[in-house]
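Lab notebook, bench 4. Still working through the backlog of constructs that have no structural model yet. Next entry is a single chain of 103 residues. Request: give me the structure tokens for it.
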Amino acid sequence: MPWGFEVSVSGRRVEIAQMHIHRCMGSKTISLEDSAYHKLRAAKRPGESFSETVLRILAGKEPSLLDFRGLLDKRAILEVRETIARMKEEDLRIFKRRLTRGR
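Model written out:
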């Protein structure tokens, strides 16, 4: 399972899927220098919003985790890994408790 894990609860195999989706439809006001605004306006297609223009121009330029390579030292990486492992263990304990209560 590429985005989850399996556990055994009371002899039963249980697959746990983890997926987090964050979606924000808010709006933000930004300030642009006149020259940047004129370039953005020139790139805007008829019927296209400024948001759509920005998204089109930046398409495929989403940051990758590889962009952060070398940012953390080995000690910090170990601490992050340990924290993630503790969080997974706690999530699993909570899940097992809920599963056994539901019987």
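Notes after review: The chain is about 45% helix and 10% strand. Strands lie at 4-9, 12-17. Flag for follow-up if needed.
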